[in-house]
Structure formats: C-alpha cells, structure tokens
Sequence to fold (115 residues):
Amino acid sequence: MLKIPKAKTLLWTNHSRAKMNFYRLSEQRIKRILNAPKRVEKGIAPKTIAAMQPLSVIKNNGKELWKQEIWVMVEDTKTQKKIISAWRYPGMTKPNSESAFNFLRSEYDEFQSSN
Fold:
C-alpha cells in the first residue's frame, strides 16, 4: 500500500484552486483527504500520488458503499506537497481500476495544458 509522505507545507496550484472552486471543495476538505485517505494510488505523473475519500459512506450488510468520491492528486518534494488537482468522481471506483486511471490521466492532461 502506498503511503502519503508527510511534508511541511502545502503548495496550491492555480489549476487545483480552479478545480476546488468548480467542485465546491474547501482547503480543509482537501487536507482531511490527505490526512485520512480511504485509498491511495500511484499517480499518472512522475512522483505523484492520488488520494481518495468517499463523500459519505453507507453500510449495507457489512459492506461500505458510497455514491461519490473526492480525489486529490499530489506531487511530493522534500519540503512541500504540491496539490496538482482535486475533483469529485460520480460513483464508486475499484482499486487500480481503469476508470480511475482514465480520470487521473484526464486531470493530469488538463493540468499540463494549463501550464
């Protein structure tokens, strides 16, 4: 399992700020996802990770289910964490699923085109 490395400061890109505004996500919500992710996957870009937390969890016959996920893509350096992007995903992805991978790819491509 991948772990989110601890860093001293957070750096917010303009792209991440725009996405947070679009999806109505606060800095505090992003920090909560980074501190207690439900799942962490390797990011599309080099040296990045993507952390996920469900919006709300419903327990059904011992299984956890949810209808939305919030994802954060982070690049880690020795002194800071750079928040590259944040978004809501409608539905429930499986670990290392193709749909999550494609969504990560599209977010990264959008980030690259904005730079």
Summary: The beta strands are 9-12, 39-42, 48-54, 58-60, 63-65, 68-76, 80-90. The CA atoms of residues 48 and 75 lie 4 Å apart.
